[in-house]
């Protein structure tokens, strides 16, 4: 089994945004993402739902590839504060793969909860950039 791992990260700027105090501990957790485009066999574009623009920030993403699967995890940091804006920060991320996606299963998108009568479309569903 071949295993490719790619890691990219972004420096999180520490700034005091309205409604977020600097004394609140930052927590990093996986967030939902949608596949926005298959640019070419080894390049994907995804849209990650980071959270409130005043209290959440993109942290990093990780890609683990096997012969059968490509797993993408996007992490966001969040400061649990009493007051955060109700908007949604969306980060567009280009993901370079070590080998073509082909027929491999794409995982890690953490789909939003779906209604029982809706099909599970998985992570390969193309959702246009917001």
Helix content: under 10%
Radius of gyration: 16 Å
Strand residue percentage: over 45%
* Secondary structure tally: strands: 8
Number of helices: 0
Uncertain runs are 1-22
* Secondary-structure element string: EEEEEEEE
* Average pLDDT number: 80
Structural class, by secondary structure, is mainly beta
Distance between the termini: 36 Å
Biggest sheet descriptor = 5 strands, mixed
Task: Please give a structural write-up.
The protein has 130 residues and is an all-beta fold. The chain has a domain at 4-10 and 26-107. It has no helices and 8 strands. The strands form 2 sheets. Strands 1, 2, 5, 6 and 8 form a 5-stranded mixed β-sheet that branches. A hairpin with a 3-residue loop joins strand 5 and strand 6 (69-79).
Fold topology:
Layout: E1 4-9, E2 26-30, E3 33-40, E4 43-51, E5 56-65, E6 69-79, E7 89-96, E8 105-107
Parallel strand pairs: 6-8
Antiparallel strand pairs: 1-5, 2-6, 3-4, 4-7, 5-6
What descriptors fit this protein?
130 residues, mainly beta, 5-stranded mixed sheet, 3-stranded antiparallel sheet, 8 strands, 0% helix, 46% strand, globular, disordered N terminus
